[in-house]
Write a structure and sequence with these properties.
The protein is an all-alpha fold. It is built from 6 helices and no strands. 73% of the residues lie in helices and 0% in strands.
Amino acid sequence: MRKNECLAVLLCTAVLLAGCATPQPAPHVVDPLTVTDRAVRQVLAWDERQARMTPEQRQQERARLESALPAPAATMELALLLAKGSEQDRARALQLLKPLKQPVVAETAPWQPVARFLFDSLERASKEQQELNEKLEQQVQQLRESQRKNEQLNDRIGQLNQKLEALKAIELSIPQRPASPEAPVLPSPARNQP
């Protein structure tokens, strides 16, 4: 019986100690869809706000965002602003988005889908722009070549016209031969008439 009593005491002690232990709080799980959804909504709001900005306001906004880097939200907003700028600005936007689209830090996780989308869109647009620029350059070269050929043809036509005028001048300078006197018309022998 002694053994049963010891076991009962140990069991009661274990139950009492378990009751005194503070339970671990359940880890706070953030729904990534909600966070990403907020990030997407924020990007769309930025886009609408930037669309209404004057060029001066864009410059001020750019300076403000440059000073707030490397915060993911500021990086994303600056990339969005630069995406609407010059070719150099779009290249800078691609550089800014590249780290955001990589799954590196939990802080950038909400921005990854939007960053990937914007990066891919900008990259595709840059390639298309580059192809258009190359085609335009080819057409400019063809136009220059055509203009050069036209100039050569015009020069050749001018030279031929000069030669023609010189030939006309030579022709006009040649003295005219006097007209040869006409040979007298002899009367035809008379026929015998009955």
